[in-house]
Amino acid sequence: MSAYRGQMGTWPKLKPNAPGELVNTSGSEWLPAASALPVHYEGDAYLPRALPATADAGSLIAAAWPDVEAANNALVSLDGTAENLPNPHLLANPFRIREAQASSRIENTIASAEEVALAELGESRSDDSVEVRYYITALEGGLRSEQTLAQPLLRSMHQALLSGGARGADKRPGDYRIGQAYIEGDRKGFSHARFVPPPTEHVQSCMDQLDAFLTQESPAFPRIMQAALVHYQFETIHPFADGNGRLGRMLIILQLCRSGLLRRPLIDISSFLDAHRDTYFDLLLDVSLEGNWLTWIQFFCRGVAHQAREARLRVRVLLDLRREYIDLVTEPRASALLRELVDWLFSRPAIKTVQVASHLGIRHQAAQRHVDRLVEKGILREITGGNYDRTYLAHGIINAIERVVEPPPGDPP
Length: 413
What we know:
The protein contains 15 helices and 5 strands. By secondary structure, the chain is mainly alpha-helical. Strands 3-5-4 form a 3-stranded antiparallel β-sheet. A two-stranded antiparallel ribbon has the order 1-2.
């Protein structure tokens, strides 16, 4: 989040409409540039009030309604485009890869789509690609789960996010933090922190309040506004020792899908937030300091609308590529399994022959013939250069995932 504190470690005065208060916190810290002994700190932390934390929901809804409606319409149009897919789930994974890349990039974790695809095979080229791959695993788990969107599911997703060899695996995956967190003060200490979330003893009660808001039977706000409010609240609570930003952005996708606004996760909202990260952080700040919900909600809705329009264009790019590939493999006496293999590549653009054999239910030798045929057609490329256990990459699909597809300014949803 953006700067709540000044350079000297003092909090600005909260406005009367601020949806929270300052509370005392203290503890000990080890500073890299200081002695090996712990240093005591004491100061203020920010404790948000329970949502909705605004006095006049009706006026807020009315003011935000043009942007709410535009975002809703854009999502409806995207859903309509997805309905025409030969396999409605065909293109979900490319969008999950983009979402994972962008959300992780906000945290300065950089990995290409090719690196992420190879990480899925266990052929990681960097720690960053492994971290992005765990993001996809956590998001997929949340989307598949039948659990209520509440604390148990979020904790399970957090555990998946920081599991295995991912950075942060030593930060209590799945469990709330047990110490005071503060942001961007790691090297200089508490007095230089840019934001201090609630003290540890308030985390559970804050998350219980968030649960109550998430699971209410008759929400007071339109669904997309509720997603904006929940994202702010989760990031402000900062309940885990690591991974809060990434999990909070997954929560947006889950809410859009769980609420029925989007039936399939064909949107990567983090790409918009990454492109406007300074504004993103500053608007979260303005909510906390001044209660400026409207500007944050307008920004959030415009981001959803923009990404929904962009997603429609990307769906067309990917469908055109699929048609091209299907035409290439549709020949007299060609195996029908080639078409199935082409579709599978959109969810797994990096493959090995042994996986193809398992997926298609055929022997290894037959699977290799199918793979070789896609190599001949230019759909796959062998990238390892070995004679055994070779890896193949669908470079056209990778390029389509990473291609810039920008909707024209003012393009209607």
